[in-house]
Structure formats: structure tokens, C-alpha cells
Amino acid sequence: MRKRLLFLAAAAVSMTLSGCAGAKKGNAQIKAETEAGAAAQAESAVKEEEKESEPSVESQEYISADGTYCITMLKGFEQTDVPIQANGSMMGLDSAADRPGFSAISIGSAKGSVPGNPERLESLEDYADHVAHLALDGTGMQVDWQEAEAENAPEMTRTIAREGTARMNGAKGRAYAEYMESGDSYFAVLLIGRDSDIEEAKQVLSLTLLDRAASQKKGSKAFLSAMTAVIDTTNGASMVETYRALDSGSGVGKITEKAKALLSESWEINSGEDLYEMAGWLMSEGHNRDAIEFLKQYGGTDGISREAFAGKAEEAGAGKRESLMAAYDAWSAYGEAAVAAWDLSRVGTIMGFGYAAGYCTYEEAMDKTLEAALKAQELYDSWDSFNQSYLYGYAYWSEESLEDPDSSAAERAGIVETLTSQANGPFSVDWETELVKEW
Hints:
alpha+beta; 3-stranded antiparallel sheet
């Protein structure tokens, strides 16, 4: 634009010189007036360019619930946050008063724990396909996405954009989306609205990475989220936080029925009484006691070497062999707390589903999860030991070997490794965090 404006200014000066009339002037005067006119035109062109480059709309910053990123968007939107899991969040921006029907949604998460638990994502394009489906599925809206131009966002390794016509119930609008990736995370921003709204939003739209405040990284809620981080990654969301954000909204009834069905089929939990009884069992006995008793039957707690015990486990046959070796390794490392982390981590999971099912309140679910977290701190000295006990417990329960690369146990181990490697991941919270009630 600058080159175009300066070119027009020069052309205007040229036309003035060739078309001037009146009294004859000296060469020096003509030269001075020409230079002054050119300077004035150039200055005007620069001011015009600066004016056009300035956003013509007001903007506002919206910070994600987990404090990891900030969206700059049009001013005056109502923000709704869904902390979907321990290291990811979703932000909804609903129509400002003067922009009916216009809304935006943003999603940010670690690459290893993308919401919705998709199959392996090979590229940013795969992520874009997944998020577009995740955001629009069930809404009745269809968009004919086309590739669009995009400038790479600061701190991102790559950015792509897509746009198209949005159709729903006979009405038409416009959709625009930007997808970004950093070294270990994916981000997305989707806009739906009128052409004019989309164009104005694009003038100010940007995403900036933030450093989590120490208080956010070391809070009790962050610790509790980390307790269920592995299963939340597997499920694609944290049930207790997701349901809390959606509580009383549309679609909640379906979630409640699904939560009841899952608790009944997988846990034989059909009431609030059943829920608390199961939570108590997990914290006092659980599979940890079963694993130790099973191990004792084969002499695994008698100081026998791992090599010698492996022979006994082999004689027990498939399934039992894997469970026995997991129990042996857990006992050798953590004694009476062998696989207790597997039990304690699932307290938060069933309480989250219990809340969604209507068997307890959010506060009650969090209170019970806090009890489990306090016990975890008593039994283990770090996230490394807690997670290793968890993996032994999963291997024992699933009757699979962590050493089998094709097993679901090895897949869980991979999730732990990925989450542990993330600088702002769930396990960045201090294990020694003083756990207190924050809700």
C-alpha cells in the first residue's frame, strides 16, 4: 500500500507541473515550489498510509482459563471458559451487543493431549480437520472450507488459515479459522458471523503465548488435575471441569445419562451411596491390596530375585504372568503402596462422572479428590514415583506388559512420558504443593 500511495503522489506532482498556468516564474522559484509540493504530497501519503494501517475497530485481550495463551479479538464479547483437561482449555466468545450472531471459539492444548482424543495427528492440517469437526459437530452448521492466506504468528512454528461460507437452517454466514502450532502445542481460533464482522475481526486477531503465573502452576486445583491427567488425555477431557462449565446449558441432559450409564456398566455405581462407597474402597484397599495378596500367593514378597520370580510367573500362564510381574516390580519399588497410585488417580475420575450423573455436587467431587491427593502425597515422594506406580497398577489390572510396545499399557506409558516432558504440562506443578480447598 505504501508504494501505491507514494506512486499516486508523484503522479499528482507531475500533472501539476505540466498543467500550470499564469505568470512566468524563475527556475529557482519553480524548483523550490516543486520540491515543497512533492514533500507535502509525500507527507500526506505517509499519513494516509498510517491512518489506513491503524485498526478501525476496538480490540480486547481474552486470556485462556489455564493462563497459557491470550487472544486479541474485537471488544465487548462475553467469555466462557471450558478447562477441558489438565493441559488444555477451550474459550468461547459470544456475540457483542452490536454484532448479533457473531461468535468465536479458541482451543489450546499440548500436542499429546488434543481435545476429543483423536487418532494420531500427523500434521497441522490434520489438527485443523479435527478441530473443525469437533467445533461444528452436532450444531447443524456446515462450512465449505477453503485454504486462505495467513501470516505466521509470533512464537509459532507454523500457521495456516481456512475460510468459507457457513450454512445452517437456510441461513448463510461466513466462517474463518486460523490454526497454529508451537514446539509442543496446537492452537485454533474459529470465527462465525457476517462478512463485515469477520473482516473487522481479522484486523485485530492474534494469539500470544503466556507464562503461567506461579500461583496457577502450584495451586491445589492444578495438583488435582494432574492426578487424573493421564486418563483425561485418554478420554479427551476432564469430566468434572467440563461438566461444571456446561452445567445448566444445552446438552447437559445427554451427558448426565451417559455418565450414569458408564458408572453403572463399568463400576456398578448407581447412586450417590455407591459412588462414595467405591471412592472409599479405592482409597483404603482397591486393586493395591488385591495385587499384594496375589503376589504373596506366588511368594513374590519373600525376597525372591526378579529372575527367579519371573520363572514362577511364567508357569502361571498368560495374563497372570503379566499381572504378577507388574505387582512384583511395584512391590519392589513402593512396598505397601505398590499400585495405590492407580487407585488414587481414579478417585477423581469417578467423582467427576458422579458429579455429571447428579450423584454429588462439584464441591463434593473436589473434596473427595482432595482426600485422595493428600494420601498420594503421603505415599509417594514425586510425580515420577506416583506415575510409575500408576503404570504398574494399570499393567496389573489390564494383564499387559509395559515392555510390550503394542500393548495399551505401553501406550499409557507413552502418555506419561509426553505429559512429563511438557514445560507447562500437568506434572510441572510442585509435588510438595500444600493442598488446600480452593473451591
